[in-house]
Amino acid sequence: MEFGLSQEQIMLQDMTNKYLAEQVSLERVRKVVSSEISDEEIWQELTELGIPGLMIPEANGGVGLGALDAAVIAECLAYHVTPSAFLSSAVMAPVALIAAGKDELLAAIAAGEQRVGIAFGETIGARREAGIAVIGSVLSGKCLFVLDSQADHYLIADKDKNLYLVAASAQGLQRNNLTTVDKTRTTCELVLDQVEAEVISNDPAVYTRSLDLGRVMQAADTLGAAQSMLDQSVVYAKQREQFNRVIASFQAVKHMCADMVANLEPCRSLVWYAAHAMDQVPEEARLMACHTKAHLSEVGKAVAKTATEVHGGMGFTDLVGLHYWFKRIGANRQLLGSPELLRNEAAKIQGFV
Amino acid sequence: MDLSFGIEYTNFREEVKGFIDQHQDKQPSATTESMTAIEWQKLLIDNGYHSRTIPKEYGGFGAEPDIIKSRIIAEEFSRARINTGLGGQGISMLVPVLLEMGSEEQKQQFIRSTIGGEMVWCQGYSEPGAGSDLASLTTKAELDGDEWVINGQKIWTSTAQLADWIFCLVRTEPEASKHQGISFLLFDMKTQGIEVRPLVDMTGSANFNEVFFTDVRVPKDQIVGKRGQGWQVANAILGHERGSLAPPEAAKSRLEGVIRLMQSETIGGEKVIDNPVFRDRLMSIQGRVLAMQFNDMRLFSARINKGQSAGMAGIIVKLMGTELRHELEALAIDAMGEIGLSYEDNPYIRGEGSWQYLYMYFLGLIIGGGTSQIQKNIISERGLGMPKEPKVDAK
């Protein structure tokens, strides 16, 4: 019996963290955010580490690893607020593309040549401005908060959980960037006017697995971002002096840090088990995905606030840049289902609704 | 990640289930057919389901330590809701200490009778002036010939009114620094000069007592460890106590109780669980219970796979576990509304009043065994390496 990461997973984690610490500095993140450089540049570097093809079968040029390995990577990427298309291209899209046998596209994703964005908004808390109408395989309407505004293709869900693939260059498709607080990952709207799409799946289970896997990865992303904010807070508190003492010696500051640890540490085990369940305990996978993303969203929100406060006025500045993590945690909370929606779904899964 | 225990343990689990099937009718209860608590305890020890790793020569079962087997026993007894045998501070805290630090005579004299249930203990640690700052305790013991003469007062002493003996921290070296001047003594509660006064708490029960010592004379050799080593001995046991105050399995079982309650109770004809606000609170608590359950599995795994890091998973358990239970019991009370206020002889009471009782009792546990604020000091100082608050010069 071993509950935790394997030796290989710990090596993967160390290697990825080492790489990101050296290559994805906050200075470089700022350049992506201000569009000085494209996030594609970082995506190409991640391709050398095998990250886009992490969950794609080896037969398609991928690495063929599982959900827990992907969760480890998601945590590392968020720890360094890495701009990337990991959630959409490396995690959510491959689920459907593997089920549909889209070998060429999978190989192109693994090689870093193509990216696939995700447009599941129709099925998760759709807002009044959005809506897709489907006639045969022709799509019209609007998708909001689509993951990855630079993708080559989009995987679109209709309200019956069918999945369609459209090329970003398809006739009748208009793509508009949607600015959000989190500029480390991009979102856009797709306006479709009778766009010819390829049907990828009519099996709701494919959609559901893709969504659940995405939710677990967002929870892992929040874990990494929150851990970074906690670590930065402790370092800062040990350096910053007021009243002739480091502020880390004040009980008020210590208790804020202790609260962050106490809330965040059990989250690690929760994320590990939820990822494990995706591959090994299918009967618990859906419930775990909902609970894990909901719980991490709540803890993440509290850590993001507390860590900013520990930094005092500096935490509020752009100079320190803590806000990149704050906003990433905020985005993870809303995308693919807010905590209230997820808890309602958890209740439904257990037959309480 | 590998959550299987292997064939040896599958077989062991079957053995445990077999024992439960065969003997569960005999567990102590109000009926005349059942065994007494002492007889049941003996049956459990003889079969290795209590005092499993305590050597045979001291009255235990004498098995090699195997925490997977211990966990399987706990899981199966809990699943079948079977009496797990005697507990209390003598068994859970004193016996481990005696095994580690007691003299051969002390082991012979105390362990068998303690685990057998013939000898009940209480713990004399806290004092009116020494709570969070336990090391400042002032109950003193002075050597007079071959006897310690003890004077002072203890508080928060659970089971003192029932206890045969006490394990007690006293100041024996007034000249030494506060942590070096304490000794760990054992003595009979029937000794002349001991007065026990029940301390009624907010639950309405006397879960604790005050104990007063006036010239209590105790043989010199009834000391565990050497003079002045009492603090190290006490810390060894406190570590033992903290993790066990709020086990996640109990939280899971209480959560199932809240779910059943919310499915059966109604507000204006509507089931409580159909109310979206209550349902959201329930799901929120369930998420937290799951987090603590898997945190516990990580700790368990780190114990069996030595060398695997549990990070900060252990140091946060007392703080998080007790706070969670307090809120979980509170949710059940809110779900019942006015009915949730029922207490003692109220005919509308649910769950024999356990929701209100435990709601208050867990507030006691948030404070006892090192308050939540002391836990946060420990987490930030030992866990995060943050400096201690500068000391204020003693008066």
Automatic annotation (TrEMBL), chain A:
GO molecular function, one term: flavin adenine dinucleotide binding
Swiss-Prot/TrEMBL cofactor(s): FAD
Presence of keyword Flavoprotein: yes
The keyword Oxidoreductase is annotated on this UniProt entry: yes
The organism's place on the tree of life at top rank: Bacteria
Keywords: FAD, Flavoprotein, Oxidoreductase
Pfam families listed in its UniProt record: Acyl-CoA_dh_1 (PF00441), Acyl-CoA_dh_N (PF02771)
Signal sequence bounds: none
Domain Acyl-CoA dehydrogenase/oxidase C-terminal stretches: 207-348
Gene3D superfamilies: Acyl-CoA dehydrogenase/oxidase, N-terminal domain, Butyryl-CoA Dehydrogenase, subunit A, domain 3
Domain Acyl-CoA dehydrogenase/oxidase N-terminal: 6-105
Family per record: Belongs to the acyl-CoA dehydrogenase family.
This protein's name: Putative acyl-CoA dehydrogenase
Organism: marine gamma proteobacterium HTCC2143
TrEMBL record, chain B:
Keywords: FAD, Flavoprotein, Oxidoreductase
Record family assignment: Belongs to the acyl-CoA dehydrogenase family.
GO-annotated cellular components: plasma membrane
Protein name: Putative acyl-CoA dehydrogenase family protein
Lineage start: Bacteria, Pseudomonadati, Pseudomonadota, Gammaproteobacteria, Cellvibrionales
Residue ranges of every copy of the Acyl-CoA oxidase/dehydrogenase middle domain listed in the record: 122-216
One GO molecular-function entry: flavin adenine dinucleotide binding
Cofactor(s) named in the record: FAD
Domain Acyl-CoA dehydrogenase/oxidase C-terminal: 228-383
Record-linked InterPro entries: Acyl-CoA_Oxase/DH_mid-dom, Acyl-CoA_Oxase/DH_mid-dom_sf, AcylCo_DH-like_C, AcylCo_DH/oxidase_C, AcylCoA_DH/ox_N, AcylCoA_DH/ox_N_sf, AcylCoA_DH/oxidase_NM_dom_sf, Mycobact_Acyl-CoA_DH
Domain Acyl-CoA dehydrogenase/oxidase N-terminal: 10-118
